[in-house]
Structure formats: C-alpha cells, structure tokens
Amino acid sequence: MLYCKGAAHKFTQAIELYTQAIELNDKNVVYYANRAFAHLRLEEYGSAIQDATKAIEVDPKYSKGYYRRGAAHLAMGKFKEALKDFQQVKKICPNDIDASKKLKEC
Hints:
Elements: H1 2-24, H2 29-41, H3 45-58, H4 63-75, H5 79-92, H6 97-105
Helix pairs in contact: 1-2, 2-3, 2-4, 3-4, 4-5, 5-6
C-alpha cells in the first residue's frame, strides 16, 4: 500500500515537472508523451489522451504518441480507437513488438 502511494506521488510529481518543461518548450514531443505515460499510470486516461494527441500534433511521425494514446483508449475499453492508434504505430515502426501485442488485445 505504501509503495502504491509513493508511486502515485512520483507520477504526480512527474506530471508537474513535465508541465513546467512544456511551458519552457512546447514543441518537445517527449515531454507530452512522458506526461501522458504518468497520466496513464495514475489512470487519468482523458489527460493521457490529450497529451498523446498533442505529441502527435507536434510530430505526426512520433510513434510513442500513438502508442500512449492507444494504451489509454484500450484501458477505457475504446477498442476501435485503440486499434487505429496501434495500427499507426506499426505503420511507423513495423517491427514494434509491443504494438503487435496491443493490436491483439484490441
């Protein structure tokens, strides 16, 4: 239980730090994707989708944006949306094993 609380605190802190980084440089897709990951770990799927979508808007060829958004959609049971995102990951990175596994879950 304490570990979970500690982990949640670290992801909350990470979100705050990535928010500050984005304020300094809003064109860095890694900041958005990493903040999306932190939101995913906290089960804040709507926020994860927003950040992943922003990463995709900044760089449409950044596969992690699609992967993070797909993971959030999958967690929410939005299988069609997740399928589209993981297909896009495979289009950008055909050898992505994790995306292949996620496609099967859709």
